[in-house]
Amino acid sequence: AVVSPQSTGRWYEEVCELSLTLENTNRKYLSNLSAVGDKVLLDCEDVADRMLETLQQEGVCSDAEAQDLKETHIMPLIEDWGAKHKETLLVLGEEFSDQAAR
What we know:
By secondary structure, the protein is mainly α.
């Protein structure tokens, strides 16, 4: 069977279009994951603030102790999660790029 140059050209255009669609979908997916990660970080900090406020109101700790607890223990955990999330997004981005290159 002989393949015409026209059908080869159409096939190539369709493959390029599908590749571009996949790349755009992956970009949107990563962007959404990034936005969700940012929201999770803000929510975690809000929950920590409310928890510490409750502890202060109940007399469990002073304002200074609550602030110290947040700075030395809670925020490093939240920041660590954020860093791991960003690292995961970078790895996913690289995997998507590698797949698109194939």
